[in-house]
Amino acid sequence: MEEGRTSEPAAGGHAPHHDEDLDHDHHVLGSNALMREVWDGEVGRFWVEETDRYEQMNAGFGVRLLGAASAQPGERFLDIGCGHGARTLDIAAAVGPEGRVVGVDISGPMLEVARSRAAHRGLTQATFRQADAQTDSLGAAQFDGIVSQFGVMFFADPRAAFANLRAALRDGGRLVFTCWQDLGRQQRIMVPVTAALEHIPLPEFNETSWSHAAFSLADPDRIQSLLTTAGFANIVIEPLQLPEYQGRNVDDVVTFSQRTELAGVLFSQANPEQTARGWDAIAKALEPHATTEGVFLDGAAWLVRAEAGH
Ligand SMILES: C[S@@+](CC[C@H](N)C(=O)[O-])C[C@H]1O[C@@H](n2cnc3c(N)ncnc32)[C@H](O)[C@@H]1O
């Protein structure tokens, strides 16, 4: 149960599906100023505290992303919404000392972690920049590749953002990213939420919550349309369903989940007795997913590859 003050939505429902809905997006998802406030503030600090958990959660997706990016020695890469920089450092290792990778993020607290890890590993080819990937120039035609692990769903104007990414790539350069499929396909969310709802009143989910943006690219037709409009070609969208680490054991997952925004929303209408029963039910529902390596629930993402058109 990864949600909440985290990178994730607090609620169900569907992202707008078609290009003509993009203006609607702007309204629904709010401005990047809000995202900056969220990620550069409390949410960023929350995930800094949970760095290890977050990285284990997404490790499987990271392997697939890196495989698809196939960074080669000497290449120049961007990592968009790089967060703590785990993938930036992987790319840095792949491009080697002759290459270059720039991690871009709006979150100061998360970039601090990324910078200190790069320094610790002596990866001087990795640098980090606090910037808005939608509105700030990333450099014209300077990069061979762009990667993003769950970092491209939070743009107020995705059309402008993907055009900005295209502009930073040389012709034929590649864009590779992961983004979440629909909320309903996320076992990591549906297992705990369904269990709790047996015992608590249905809360009012707010689709305009900043965190709902995590599902803004759930519709592959929309991804295709956005990327085509932005000047990308040869777009391939592959479903990935992978086990996601949630925590060491059931108690650890419950304690973590209780701090998330999703928990706040989910239990907002419940009295203390219902709340206690709800958390017991979540713990029971997690038990079958506990292994000696930790608790795992599936996450469903899209792995997207595209080429900067000529
Ligand atoms: C779900 S986290 C992913 C972090 C990292 N890629 C990872 O998987 O470990 C999303 C990241 O996107 C960043 N972000 C959101 N909007 C952004 C924007 N407009 N420009 C740059 N980064 C942004 C957030 O600060 C956050 O670090």
UniProtKB/TrEMBL annotation:
Occurrences of domain Methyltransferase (ranges): 78-173
Alphabetical list of Pfam families matching this protein: Methyltransf_25
Region (Disordered): 1-25
Ranges of Basic and acidic residues composition bias in the record: 16-25
Annotated protein name in UniProt: Methyltransferase domain-containing protein
Alphabetized UniProt keyword annotations: Methyltransferase, Transferase
The organism's place on the tree of life at top rank: Bacteria
Species in which this protein is naturally found: Nocardioides simplex
Record GO terms (molecular function): methyltransferase activity
